[in-house]
Amino acid sequence: MRIVSGIQPTGNLHLGNYLGAIRNWVRMQDEYSAKGGQCLYFLADLHAISMPHTPSELGAATREMVAALVSCGIDPDKSILFNQAQVPAHAELQWLLNGTARMGWLNRMTQWKDKAGKNREGASVALFTYPVLQAADVLLYQATHVPVGEDQKQHLELARDIAQKFNNDFCAEDAPLFTLPEPIIPPEAARIMSLRDGSAKMSKSDPSDMSRINLTDDADAIMQKVKKAKTDPEPLPATVEGLAGRPEANNLVGIYAAMAGVTPASVLTDFEGKGFGQFKPALGELLVEKLSPMAARYRELRQDRESLDAILAKGAFKARDLAAPTLARTYEALGLVRG
Ligand code: TYM
To answer: Which sequence spans correspond to the domains of the chain?
Structure first.
């Protein structure tokens, strides 16, 4: 088992990141590192420069995201925690895979379409080739499993397509170079939605901070955001089917279920017929109870720049080592002479 996943160090870690991905990172770390499996988790700082960014803020954001991940339970002694910029093999492999990825494949990526919008001519080339770097991130380590939220599924499918085509084009049939990675998406929290709009995903790029719960939010902010969350006037239904056509209610019930570790059906058994005036305070309290220990650890850790840099240096050292064989084999498969 080789588990690999990444997060962009832009903005705060929010509840969507936590429930959709990071919680699974921690679970997989605890389960597989004990059995000799290896987990690599990284800050996708190279991806972060595909959108306009402020250089003087990127370093701080990278360290803060390390502090956030450690606060959520990523243990740098069990997992390899690093940032892409310290492992040049990511950028190198991306270039080598650019010969295999097809324009048509990248043109179909929904993230590219959403982020470039109507201004494709003005979008960066990095935004377009972003999924090739993401493919390199996982193929470099022969990842078998990639824990992510639903929004990354298409990028993972592309990584599989690139791996398959490369293996077909450049490797003997009985000696494929790249492993095809499997996405691991938590069914109960595949897509956490904005608190202001049940049809948009919770995201760090939403201009309204009221749309998301951040790991850094204190208890008052959490209660306030849940209280102000958009809902409808109906009471909660008895069954999950009754949530159809009620995206905001569905989202809040889903968050409650994921946080409490129960099914949405059992949440509805407890809250059937109750209005949001009763449900929201219960949800807010649950969030505060579960998130505040992590938030407290985060506030302490983020001060300690030296330790955070040491974590990244140690992780990068190990990642460079693990990346080297696959990178060398890729150069070789392509016929590139390296002395
Ligand atoms: P990023 O930084 O946008 O998000 C990090 C992880 O959080 C998940 N996520 C969500 N899950 C459920 N509901 C939401 N509202 C929500 N918002 C975010 C994402 O699915 C992701 O798993 N391109 C990636 C980073 C990346 C990567 C990789 C991931 C770079 N290389 C290789 C996996 C493997 C990204 O921007 O994620």
So the answer is: 2-190+305-333, 209-301
Binned at pLDDT 50, 70 and 90, residue 268 comes out as very high
- The amino acid occupying position 84 is Q
The residues assigned a catalytic role are: 115, 201, 204
Compute CA 253 distance to the chain's CA centroid, rounded to the nearest angstrom: 22
pLDDT of 63 above 90 = yes
Q: Which among 152, 184, 197, 201 is the best mutation to test ligand 1's pocket, defined by most ligand atoms within 8 Å of the CB?
A: 152
* Ligand 1 atom closest to residue 152's alpha carbon, by position in its atom list: 20
In whole angstroms, give the CA distance from residue 73 to residue 94. 30
Q: What is the CATH number that goes with domain 2-190+305-333?
A: 3.40.50.620
Diameter of the chain by CA atoms?
A: 73
**Does the beta carbon of 47 sit less than 6 angstroms from any atom of ligand 1?**
yes
The domains spanning 2-190+305-333 and 209-301 adopt the same CATH topology: no
Q: Please state the three-class secondary structure of 83-151 as a single string.
A: EHHHCCHHHHHHHHHHCCCCHHHHHCCHHHHHHHCCCHHHCCHHHHHHHHHHHHHHHCCCCCEEECCHH
Q: Pick the residue whose CA is nearest to atom 18 on ligand 1.
A: 17
Answer whether 134 contacts ligand 1 (Cβ < 6 A). yes
pLDDT tens-digit map of 16-58: 999 999 999 999 999 999 899 999 999 999 999 999 999 999 9
Q: How far is CA 102 from its chain centroid?
A: 24
137 Cβ closer than 6 Å to some ligand 1 atom: yes
- Does residue 20 have its Cβ closer than 6 Å to ligand 1? yes
CA dist list (Å): 310 to 66, 148, 307, 315: 11, 26, 5, 8
pTM, to two decimals: 0.97
* Architecture (CATH level 2) of domain 209-301: Orthogonal Bundle (1.10)
- What's the half-sphere exposure (Cβ side, CA atoms, 13 Å) at 164? 9
